[in-house]
Amino acid sequence: MKKLLIFLVPIAFIIGCGTTPVEISAPTNLTITGADGLSVSFSWVESETPDIDGYIFFLEDTIGFDTVGTVSSATVQPPALGTITLRAYKGDDISPVSNAVTLSVVTGGPDTIWYYDSPNPSGYGWDASGTGTVYSFQSQDSLNIDIYLDRDFDIASPSTYSKWLTTYITKVDSDVDVAPDAITSKAAPAEEGYFVVKLPDHGEDGGDQYVKLHVTSVNTTDSSIVFEYTFQPLENYRRFR
User: Fold this and answer.
1) Which of 58, 122, 196, 220 has its CA 20 to 30 A from that of 84?
2) Under 8 Å between Cβ of 167 and 159
3) Under 8 Å CB-to-CB from 224, ≥6 apart: which residues?
């Protein structure tokens, strides 16, 4: 009987000891620090739990789209715009969610601009936050106007005129999710459809910004176009959706 008891004790111990989940503290202060093309850079304060395996990035806290090691910053490619969060993990255990940051766009319009040789020519410009404004085409607005309708009835960069801004414009085939990676033309014929405008050195930190224009009406009678826009405020980031 002694021998049986000796063997029963360890068996009971094994049966009674299931795997206990590891409590992992969440990373904090998740921050967007920059972008390049379709990549976004983030920084954060690391989890206080020692010996974690790394971190998982989530879109809308449901789609885990990238994993990094035990670092406090990383550059990744979110698959779409939306809310980005971060969780620490160790083995199969995962932390609570970090604070959320959002990748988003600014939309506006409809707005109208008129042809350069019309009685009231106008241009259009955006500030770094994405607010669009119609301006009279006059020299005092030279640092505000990003596009106008030139004499060829093109949507054009005003850089034809000395000391005015340089922008780049291209027609795209559809309602694109992402701006083309190379836009070199300074004008495109005004017609209904979609265009992408690159605004060089436009952001508050000196980075490029991108706008998607949807021209909904071209009026040759009064020489004007009507358009809506989608503006990406994150500098150097080309995603619209």
Assistant:
1) 196
2) yes
3) 112, 113, 114, 115, 118, 149
Query: Three-class SS string for the chain?
Result: CHHHHHHHHHHHHHHHCCCCCCCCCCCEEEEEEEEEECEEEEEEECCCCCCCCEEEEEECCCEEEEEECCCCEEEECCCCCEEEEEEEEECCEECCCCCCEEECCEEEEEEEEEECCCCCCEEEEECCCCCEEEEECCHHHCCCCCEEECCCCEEECHHHCCCCCCCEEEEECCCCCECCCCCCCCEEECCCEEEEEEECCCCCCCCCEEEEEEEEEEECCCCEEEEEEEEECCCCECECC
What are the structure tokens assigned to 8, written together?
A: 């029963």
Architecture of domain 2-103 in CATH?
Sandwich (2.60)
pLDDT at site 19? 58
Q: Tens digits of per-residue pLDDT, 37-59?
A: 999 999 999 999 999 999 999 99
Strand partners, 215: 193, 227
- Taking the domains of the chain in order of start, what are their residue ranges? 2-103, 106-232
Distance, CA of 181 to CA of 210 (rounded, Å): 11
Cα 41 to Cα 34: distance, rounded to the nearest angstrom: 5
pTM (global) more than 0.85 = yes
